[in-house]
Amino acid sequence: MAGLKFKTVALVSSFGLSSFLAGSYYQRKFSQDHPNLKQFPGLPIFGTVSAATPVSPVPSQTNVSRISQIMKYGFPGLDNIRSFDNYVLSYDKRNRVAHWVFEHITAESIKPNEGVDRSLCDFKPDESIHPYFRSLNSDYLKSGYDRGHLAAAGNHKCSQKLVEQTFYLSNMAPQVGVGFNRDAWNKLERYVRKLTRTYANVYCCTGPLYLPRRESDGKNYVKYEVIGANHVAVPTHFFKVVVCETNDGKFEMESYVMPNQAISDDTPLTSFRVPPESIEKAAGLLFFDNIARSKISKINGKKI
Question: How far is CA 45 from CA 34, 37, 100, 213, 218, in A?
Answer without folding.
Answer: 10, 9, 20, 15, 19
